[in-house]
């Protein structure tokens, strides 16, 4: 009976240890997927959508092509399910923006907002006549 209990205890301990290791591995893979694919992919899509909404169609087209190339590398290349994933896509986008491919039509860089004259002025005292 003692031998049987030792075998059962060893099996239970082994099963528990393997479950913990599997759970940790799954958690690490999930964190990698979020940081290397989900987050940069979402940011890239929002940036492309922003360019489309602003009428910068050539910029959006260049970014879509860069995104597709990066995705192809991730999907079947050496980075497949490891490494950078598509985490460097925004670096690629910034290179496109720097090279002028994705420059805004009004000359604004990287979605900067124009400053309108008269903003941030200190308020005048009441009755100043101005």
Description:
The chain is 63% helix and 0% strand. It is mainly alpha-helical and 130 residues long. It is rod-shaped and about 80 Å long. The chain starts with a helix and ends in a 32-residue tail after the last helix.
Break the fold down into its secondary structure elements and pairings.
Layout: H1 2-53, H2 57-76, H3 89-98
Helix pairs in contact: 1-2, 2-3
Number of domains: 1
- Helical fraction equals 55-70%
Number of distinct beta strands: 0
What structural class results from the helix and strand content?
mainly alpha
Distance between the termini: 99 Å
Overall pLDDT confidence: 75
How many helix segments?
3
Question: What would you report as the Rg, rounded to the nearest angstrom?
Answer: 27 Å
Shape: rod-shaped
SSE order:
HHH
